Amino acid sequence: MARTTVPAPLTTSGAALHLVRGTLAHSRAAVLRLAWWTLVSAAPALVSGKALALAVDEGFLAHRPRTAALGLAVFALCTLGGAWASRQTYPWLAEIVEPLRDRLLGDVVTGTLRRAVGRGARRDGFDAVAVAQLTRQVEAVRDALAGQLMLVWQFVLTVGAVVVGTAFIAPAAVPLVAVPLVLALGVFAVLAPATVRRQHAAFQAEETLARETVAIVGALRDIVATGTHDRAEREVLDAVRAQLRASRKLATVAAVRRVIVALGAHSPLLLVVLAAPGLVDRGMTPGDVVGVLSYVLSTLEPAVRLLVQGVGASWLRLSVAAERLAGAAHHPGPPEDPDPALRPADGSVVLSDVTFAYGPDAEPVLDGLDLSLAHGDHLAVVGPSGVGKSTTADLLTGILPPDRGRVVLGGVPLDRVARDDLSRARALLPQNPYVFAGTVRENLCQLAPGTPDEVVARTVEELGLGRVVRRLGGLDGLVDPAGLSSGERQLVALARVHLSPAALVVLDEATRHLDAEAEQRVEEAFRRRPGTVVTLAHRLALARRADKVLLLDGRRAWVGTHDALLAQVPFYADLVGIWNTGTAGPGDDGPGAGGNRLSSPDAASDRSSSRPSADRAP
Amino acid sequence: MRHGLTTTVLRLWWPTALVLSVAAGSLAALLLPAAVSRAVDRALSGGGGAEVVPLAAVVALLTVAEAVAQYAGPRATAETTARLRAALVRHIMAGGPHPARQTATGDLVARLTAGTAEAGLAGQAIVYAVAQLAMATGAVVALGLLAPELAAAFLVTAPAGWLLLRRQLRRTVRRGTGYQSAQAAVAARLLDALAGSRTIAAAGTVEQEIERVLRPVAELSRHGRALWDSQRRVAWSTGLLAPATQITVLAVAGHELSTGALSTGELIAALGYTALGLGGFGTAQSLLDLARARAGQARVSEVLEAPRAPVGLRGLPPGPGRVEIREVTVRRSGRAVLDRLELVLPAGTCTALVGSSGSGRSLLAAVAGGLLVPDGGLVLLDGVPLDEIRPADLRTAVSYAFGDPALTGATVLDALTAAVKPVSAADARRAARAAQADTFVRRLPAGYDTPLADAPLSGGQRQRVGLARALARDCRLLVLDDATSSLDTATEAAVLHAVDVSHGDRTRLIVTHRTSTAARADAVAWLDEGRIRAVAPHHELWRTPAYRRIFTGTGDPDGPGRSGD
After folding, report:
1. pLDDT, tens only, B358-390
2. Which domain range does residue B387 map to?
3. Do B198 and A244 touch (CB under 8 A)?
4. How far is CA A480 from CA A545, B189, B209, B338, in A?
5. A-chain residues within 8 Å CB-CB of B93?
6. Same domain flag for B59 and B180
7. All domains of chain A in start order, with CATH
8. pLDDT tens digits, residue range B176-219?
9. CB A275 within 8 A of CB A176
């Protein structure tokens, strides 16, 4: 639907050439061996024609079975030798292509992950389809490059062997074979740009169609609801037709390319047969004719067909995939550490005038936020969803830099802390806990490698994770992320942060999947742990037990204790009302009068769009 | 009828051309060795070039037939693919947003792009498989006609090689499975790490993660090299098979030559027929293609076979906008989410729809406006069953706003004006102001003309654009399905006030989990266990503890939009 198709550059060979050059340079020894064995595999073709000619002339026609057998045996040995030599090429091909695949995977994984953790990365920017595509493209490069290495070189050598072999048998027949062949290669070269262009156009039409399909399938509900379903259907059908047109054009080129086979392989056949009487007059024997024609029919024709059908398409696949992979491997270098780097002294936090927006013209998520936390404070951040709580967590932990103002941790502005020090000084636990395939110990001690087992065991028990760890087979048991429930994954991630040396811990709805009892146990465990804790709260209890509450409503922010906010900020009271379980909230005996006003049903018939203003936090 | 005939002819044109050209090409290929043999014998016997004419004719036929096949094959495939795609698109659109058989977006897209392309190959694969088999048979017969001993020589050698080859192919397939699972392991680890990117960013452990994701690469490499090794064996087997057959045939042919039973030209023909006969092994590849094509066909028809409701044909007479939901049942995975549900939305009133998350609120909202045709029961708008109303009329009468709106079109203005009859720009701006969206839209780089792709909208901003889209046009029934969940209460109150002003005399259904919103409505419909438990003003219901409990813990974003199912 979104018609923002930026046409990709038409020639994509740059990335592929770069890749091929790089690969050849990287595996020079293997390339040389591959070239050598391919050469050896083509060499028997030089002799095979002559051997066949001899077998016919001197053997069969001369009624000398032993000479015939000898000729055939030489012919057999030649083909056997050729087959054996091409058998030898495979290990070297593997030696070139396998490390290339490993390198490509490494580059793609590195690029994708570095970009994902880089500044300004979309937080939900992971996409199973995209990852699957990347894997397929790595495979496409592996296969297509192997094909290119085999095909192109083998074609050159085979054709060379045919021409030289023909010269061996009957020098006069060489022009009959070579001239059409050169012409055919000329046609191939002339048609190549158009072929690549049309193949590329077909590929792009296919991609456009996929994109449009994703767009309409993804927005189907809205398309139907707005009644624009005919228009959307027309647009996708247009994309289907555009793809059909591109396929037709490609088919036209394919048909024209068939001429290359006629020219390169069939016209030598006709020419040799046509010229045969004259050649025979000049001393060419029947055996020689058999030899030359066997070259043309059995060696040359398959080679030309392979060139026409294989090389072009596989080069295009290579170039497109190489281009995509170059994009996927691209990533910003790690940011430089400040000099001199300072180390935070403790978990105290000071935010002054912190402002952040997701774009220069976008509404700020935070506007001039001031906040101060002493080491050991527990702060709850509260507000409707989508209001910027997670952004606040990112700013507090230095994952995002503020547009204006500064964040000071342990007396040091965050932009003066080296990255490694920052990782040790504070820890962030997001909503989606990250548990990876590895041992339990690896998962738990990720932030504090080398923690003694008894310390780990204590934390495990303290957080109520003991049962899970025992089920997995102790600290050396293997974790299968998909085999754990959401709550169990959260407990693993919580234990990891609990074990870390961080003086500031930010929990972004990190107990969402735990029941109230487990949540309280976790909270108490973090109370006993030295350091500052910031909790992005999704339940009232978390805010009520915190030392301080930071309230966000999308435009303003307030800081205070639970009771003070309840008394002073009607919006907070309203939130509490929404959260309230009906046991101790507004409507019954809530402490704040303002809270009662907005959330109790009796007062809610007030339809004024204005709302009581509240004081900004200091 | 005439039209149907024309399309049938058009549809069969290219497949027919393919069949004819491949048949002609196969015939020419079978004639070629014979023609070469004649021409060579004539030339060697000093008979001049007369026999070149039939040879040239055969080569010309071969060239033309193959060129036509090169065009007709892809063309027929492309036409079939496009036809399947169009059918799928129409089917998906007609099935609506809540089809009985839910398919994940990615899966559906894969079926529409890859599945149809594979299915389209079926015709070509069958034609070539048959042609290859026929040519191979023809070649063996031709060898037999030259001399029965030649056919015997071919038939003795070739099958032995074939057995060898098949064993190696099986091994390759086995190795391939191991390779693919190692590959999948890398992809799975990468996906895990991407899902945990925020943790990794905070912990600064990206280098360790890269190392961990790439750990299965060693295994992948091992399988990869093993694959090359088995390919080497396959190449060796084929490398032996072809020459061994060739030499056997040659030896026999040579013997016949020396006895004078065969001419030199016929020896060349024997070589040619041997090559053609060996080409018959290519049938295996065509059969593999055919299997793939059939799998593609199955995947496509799975979607196409899902039943689809007939399109309504009745016009909608004018009316006040009374909605009656009668005995509506909606089943999801065998469970009745809505169970013989009864609800009336009186014309011109505002009803809040309230229920715990997972109770099917969004499904009911979809049923009320005809986005979802229920499995049982009836929904009437001013007395007319929704599924009988012409789609254009129904969509003009009902306007929706969602919690997670998908914005369509090229620009923000396009997104706002999407409707059966496109809305004027002035109306769109007025609605944007009402939905509290005007301010931030004007702050976008190109204001209302900013391309959607370049508009960095937060969840709350998207909601407001979605609300503006719903408010930009007049309607009989306005459904707000959690459409204000990401707005703070002040903005929400302003938006709802604007709705009261512009759509105050329209029937409104507002799905909400906020007490303040429920309290504004004329009545609250309380959805519980698939039925409407009560319809009453909020303050009356508030006395019931179970009702108050619904608002527990709903500070969570409870998957707006389609969370109900």
Report:
1. 678 889 999 999 998 898 999 999 999 999 999
2. 323-564
3. no
4. 35, 11, 16, 37
5. 216, 220, 223-224, 229, 232-233
6. no
7. 13-329 (1.20.1560.10), 349-560 (3.40.50.300)
8. 778 888 888 888 888 888 878 888 888 888 888 999 999 999 99
9. yes
